[in-house]
Amino acid sequence: DAEINALGEMPLTDTDEQAARDLFLFGYAVGQRYSDYGDISKEDIIEFEGHIILDRRQRKTRSKVVVEIEDKRALEIIRKYNKELPRIEHTKFNRTIKNLFARLRFLTPSLGDMVITTLSGKEKTSEEYFAKLIDKKNRGEKMTEAEARAYLFDIEKQKIYGGSGKQIYRRDTKGRILKPKWTLVGSHTARRSFVTNQIEEGSLDRSEIRNITGHTSDKVLEAYIRTEDKEIRRAIEIGSKRREARAKKSATKIQMKQSN
Questions:
Q1: Parallel, antiparallel, or unpaired for β 177-180 and 114-117?
Q2: Fewer beta carbons under 10 A from the terminal one: N or C of the chain?
Q3: Is pLDDT at 215 greater than 80 in this prediction?
């Protein structure tokens, strides 16, 4: 929430950046995919007895979602654009949002936290090529112009991702990939953040969250919680049961002593 709020309060003068930020915040508020929150028109937003409702059939699944828009920021955005939200080409939207969070990390340190993730096939290929270029450089062989550009570009990526030696991307002691959180932001982050934060908050049960997002099962929602978080939560749950069992045992012993 702190990171989302920081984005909402970020002073912006560029109209394209404002539009991308507004669209992201709206997507976060309603928990929809970019194919839906990036394609909102007046027909999708209705007023009913003083309430503002998003009434739309999702593009991907054709599921119908009916969501009350009660988030203050989202309501302001609706009024700002008179229910016709900005439409931004997907690649441009992702690039703009990532750039905003890249700048925001200097004001919101948690965006620089290293988180466990995976590499795409393209990233693996890029790192392998980088290793070959380093070997070529170490052997004193001259690089082509294209190779020199690729080498310098990967050196800059290495600085961002914290890699060392022949690796662009940082690894932990178990060999897992670590990346700064801000580098992982994209259009789907809005929906993921909505689901994750609602689960964390605990004010809605899973079926209510699914009613908003259009997910068909709780199993799909579970994918939004990181594996290590699930393991920790499970450990805490087991620990709580053990503490409760000991407390009951102690209470029983005290009652027996008192009765004697």
A1: antiparallel
A2: C
A3: yes
242 Cβ contact list (under 8 Å, min separation 6) = none
Instruction: Return the closest-CA partner of residue 177 out of 109, 98, 225, 115.
Output: 115
Give me the residues paired with residue 157 across strands. none
Beta strands in 126-229 (DSSP E): 170-171, 177-180
Q: What are phi and psi of 114, to 5 degrees?
A: -85, 125
Dihedral angle, C-alpha 228, 125, 153, 176, nearest 10 °: 20
3-state secondary structure of 66: strand
Q: How far is CA 113 from CA 61, 176, 182, 183, in A?
A: 34, 15, 8, 10
CA 68 remoteness from chain centre:
22
Q: What is the mean pLDDT of residues 183-190?
A: 94
Q: Model confidence over 110-158: pLDDT tens digits?
A: 999 999 999 999 999 999 999 999 999 999 999 999 999 999 999 999 9
pTM, whole model, 2 decimals? 0.80
Phi, psi of 68 (to 5 degrees): -75, 130
Residues 6+ apart with CB under 8 A from 105: 111, 112, 180, 182
Half-sphere exposure for 118 (CA within 13 Å, toward CB): 4
Q: Structure tokens of 110?
A: 């948690």
* Rounded mean pLDDT, 218-227: 70
Question: Which positions ≥6 away from 240 have C-beta within 8 Å?
Answer: none
- Within 10 angstroms of residue 26's Cβ, the number of other Cβ atoms is 26
